[in-house]
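Hi R.,

Here's the chain you asked about this morning:
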Amino acid sequence: MNLTPEVPRHGVDQGLRTLQALRVSGGARDGTVGFFGFEDESGAPVQAVTAEQRAAWAKEGSDAIDAAVKMADINKIAQSLQDHDRFTREYLIPKFNDLLP
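And the predicted structure, written out as C-alpha cells:
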C-alpha cells in the first residue's frame, strides 16, 4: 500500500476555511463546534473544589456560553459544515477511496 501517494491539486475546501476563520473550534476538520476541557491549563486533572467555587465557575461558564451563542453566526457555521461535508464526499473520498479502511 502506498502511504505517500501524490496528492492531486484541488480547489480549496471553502467549508473548512470558513470554519477556521469563524474560529468555532480547533477541531473543525471533524465537524466539532466548541469544546469541553476536563483538565486545567497545565494539563493536570481538575481537583475537587468547594460548592462556592463550583457555583462561581458555573456562573462564569454559563455567561461565556451565552456570549458565544449570541456572537455565533449559526447559519454560517451550519452552511460551512455542510460545505465541508460535501467537499469530503465529492472530492476526498473519491480521490483517496483506495486508502480508506
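The mean pLDDT is 76.

Let me know if you need anything else.
M.
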